[in-house]
Amino acid sequence: MGYTPGSALGKEGSGQAEPVKIDIRRSRAGIGREDPHKEKRKREEIRTWAERRNEQVMMEEFGSRKKSQWRSRRVVVNFKKAQAALDQLENKEVVPPEKNEEEEEEGGGEEEEEEEEEITEEYESMEALLTHCPGADEDDH
């Protein structure tokens, strides 16, 4: 009734061929305690994962902040354009916005005229407007 090397365990010999190995621990740490190098490596992995996650969250926040800043600037620009158009419709004198020297030197007048023609395009009827206009917002266009 003992163990014979090479034979399987159990009554009928159908069990494990090797018994459970004994792990002799050289350190005086408890059973649940791991090797200090393994513990340090695990802590380092957790720290790097947390740093990567924090960096990713910060990048997303930065992107959303920049998008909202850009949108708010576009709202201000669109408001000023609409206000100028309203003043013109009310036959008030419109003061054109001051241009920088760089903008005057570029001289992209033809492109601006074509863009203005596209922007101020008028439709013949309400039906044509509803069928051909992509949407009311700038994002739709």
Topology, element by element:
Elements: H1 36-89, H2 101-106, H3 109-119, H4 126-132
Textual characterization of the structure:
With 141 residues, the protein is mainly alpha-helical. It has a domain at 33-96. The chain has helices at residues 36-89, 101-106, 109-119, 126-132. The termini are far apart. The mean pLDDT is 79.
Explain briefly what this protein structure is.
This protein has helices spanning 36-89, 101-106, 109-119, 126-132. The chain is mostly helical.
Q: Percentage of helical residues?
A: 55-70%
Strand residues, percent:
under 5%
**Alpha carbon gap, first and last residue:** 88 Å
Note the total helix count: 4
The profile of the biggest β sheet is:
none
Keywords:
single chain, 55% helix, nucleic acid binding, G-patch domain-containing protein
